[in-house]
Amino acid sequence: MSDLNSTGIDTGVPNVTQTLDSSGPPTATQHERPDSSNGLEKTVVTSWKAPIAFLAFTIIALVLFVILGRDGSSTFTLSADNDLIQLPDVTVPARVTGIVITVLLALLTVFAYLRVRSDRRVPLWASALLGVLFLIAFLTWVDAGASLPVQVPGLLVGTVSLSVPLIFGALGGVISERVGVVNVAIEGQLLGGAFVAAVVASITGQPLLGLGAAAIAGAAVSFVLAAFAIKYLVDQVIVGVVLNVLVIGLTNFLYSQVLSKNAELLNSPPRFDRINIPILSEIPIIGPTLFRQTIIVYLMYIAVAAVYFALFHTKWGLRVRAVGEHPQAADTVGINVNGTRFWNVLLAGAITGLGGAYFTLGSVGAFNKEMTAGAGYIALAAVIFGQWDPIRATLAALLFGFASNLQNALGIIGSPVPSEFMLMLPYLLTIFAVAGLVGRSRGPAASGRPYIKS
Amino acid sequence: MSDSALASPTPAASSGAAPTPGAEIPPAPKSNQVLRDIMGGSVVISILAVLLALVVGGILIALTDENVQAASGYFFSRPGDTINAIWVSVSGAYGALFQGAIYNFGGNTFVKQIKPITDTLTFATPLIVAGLGVGLAFRAGMFNIGGQGQMLIAAACSGWVAYSFPLPYGIHLIVAVLAGVVGGAVWGGIVGVLKARTGAHEVIVTIMLNYIAVYLISYLLRTPGALQAPGSSNPKTPADLPTAVYPDLLGGDFNLHAGLLVSIAATVFVWWLLTRSSLGFKFRAVGVNPNAARVAGINVKRSYIYVMLLSGGLVGLAGVAQVLGTVTSGFSSGIDAGIGFDAITVALLGRSKPWGIFVAGILFGAFKAGGFAMQAGQGIPVDIVLVVQSLIVLFIAAPPLVRAVFRLPTPGVAKKPKPPKASTSSPVAASTGEAVVAK
């Protein structure tokens, strides 16, 4: 499927950081191979995956929006009733919009083709633009002739709400995998965080204490993972899967046995209030989406930025990545590999635990059996789809959150696409990602391998 | 720093070329270390792990028991009350577990007395085949976490044949079973093909395929004309035709069905496959060291595909057992009943050996049967069984932990020498001391 088009580019001494930072957009792939002549050559493999994927989207658009185009007009509501700045509703004719956007998609495909033919990458903004255009066309097509408008603010607010635990989980997953420990236990960390947050916040009446306790609970689950994976060298995937079952069993047991009997005392946590950030919260569309949220969401913004900065611009981050990529080399320069792994897996668990608290202190307001409902596995998918990069993983989590939320929104409008297929989308995308059809998917080299000092 | 350090050591990229002399031989993947750990431990460790897990479960039961909590309020004045309450709660729970799983002392007829053990075998039937599927994949170095998806697809295929095609007695059952096996094999085979062709990690793919199967089946179940029963609005299929149902083994008083015979046959088959056939030898070789297997001329990628097809088919049999044996009146999307995940624990407890899995499946079947009895009789949530099961697997996966708890000697290591005192030790003693520390 991919056309090998190798050109030798002399790049001086390659190093680990360069490899990591060059994990470019999901388009052209690069492989570095040792070359016998001088050992410094770098083979660039251009990939036709991006233009082919673009073409596929264009063809789908052509079939769906032009050939099967629906007549009538679609309405988009852009602001809620209580907004300070009111934007008018936008009404567009469905068929014309479909045709225009299909033409734009075709142009993007040609652009991608030309870029790849001249051995250059397809930039990330092109993929993003393609996605947004396709989505607008899709929503227009769905809403054509429907009596209800598409509520854009509601769609976006719901997306953020569903994405918060995914993003925290993905950040925890990124740190854990970057340091070389596969974290399948994200689900358990989220669930543990949700449970403990509910109990502690209910008893103390302080949601902030609940939040702190959730971090500790997540770290506790991580502690078991780290202890078994690093000290006892048990396979990390097995420990992760079993830990998820263990936490599900424990929380279910305690919920039925203790919580449901004293729901007033133990399972009625106070929820965080929404805090409107002055000025910013009045920006149309963006304001209600991003700046009228609870403290957990603001914490999430900080966490994403902090993890990104720390991972790529601090000594700590360099050590974490070195341990995850090449533990022997890290050990040689005096980094305590297993110590670094241990503490960072704990940190990852704490961050994930905060995401769990969002279930009980932010969105739902009480603990329920298995309330995470597979969010941990979607977060794991986001880590892989986001290529082990905190920003990309966050975007992937937002995409998955959007897909889940879209089926809610389409359910209201009356969608021609069954909701199950929308729910399937994140998982299908992940399979494509790991199979290498969408971009490159290569994790930290030493992820999942225990380090035994010899 | 050379580029070779950056090159991925996974063998999937290189296309089967024998390594040239002097080239760095890629290290064997750690999965063979895992296999050694899984199978290297002794039966003693397994038994102790079960014991330890039961103790932890007992502590949980005691801690959450209301009488224990009440009695512990005045522990220092009358400690006997607390101890008595702990004894009552824990022994009551495990007594109910035993009576629900093995033999009911309170039953007034023989049928009622021995019904628990047949219930155990009924619960064990799908666990054994699913555990065999997962265990077979383990032996080839693959983690099949996709039991849920494979079971759902198999159940859908098998159930569809069972209710929609009137066929003669006998043939119908065989066709329905085969349809389920094929469904599971296809769903598992996707994983094998993706692993062989693209190197996609099977754990991620199986987890994702689980969710895809769940949504696919729930869509089909609520769509008229697909799997939904005609004239019904519930997401449920019609009942199986009587010609496709597994016959009862012990008559209508018991739930035990002929699926157990299929499970026993599958155990014999996997035993034969792994120990007597060349395909099984290839699987084991790939599982121990895929690089060595490739050098020896075994097609590693093809082995991945075959083992996932077989694994999926075996797990599919568990779905068949559910549809044609346990729930014959039409199934909904919860038909897998968590067996896909339980199978992982069964395979680990059975150390991926066919007869070990058979015994482990019966043990976990007993936990399931007893767990429901415990919930009904003692009001202790059945989820405690999940806790005990996962603890068993954790303890079994880490033999050093169990040895440390029970102060057992480490096998293969001679009696640990006293750590030599640094000042008086000879150079030889110091070096052995270092070796021990480095280990």
SSE topology sketch:
The complex is a heterodimer of chains A (454) and B (439).
Chain A (H helix, E strand, L loop, with lengths): L6 E4 L5 H6 L7 E3 L9 E5 L3 H19 L5 E5 L12 E4 H24 L6 H20 L6 E2 H27 L7 H19 L2 H25 L4 H24 L3 H4 L8 E2 L9 H5 L1 E2 L1 H19 L1 H11 L1 H6 L4 H27 L11 H11 L4 H24 L5 H16 L20
Parallel strand pairs in A: 4-6
Antiparallel strand pairs in A: 1-3, 2-3, 4-5, 7-8
Helix pairs in contact in A: 2-3, 2-4, 3-4, 5-6, 5-11, 5-14, 5-15, 5-16, 6-7, 6-8, 6-14, 6-15, 7-8, 7-14, 11-12, 11-14, 12-14, 15-16, 15-17, 16-17
Chain B lengths: L30 H10 L2 H22 L1 H7 L6 H23 L8 H30 L7 H18 L6 H28 L3 H21 L36 H18 L1 H11 L1 H6 L4 H27 L12 H11 L4 H25 L4 H15 L1 H8 L20 H12 L1
Descriptive terms for the model:
heterodimer; A: mainly alpha; 2 domains; 3-stranded antiparallel sheet; 17 helices; about 65% helix; disordered N terminus; B: about 450 residues; mainly alpha; cell membrane (chain B); transmembrane (chain B); ABC_transp_permease (chain B); membrane (chain B)
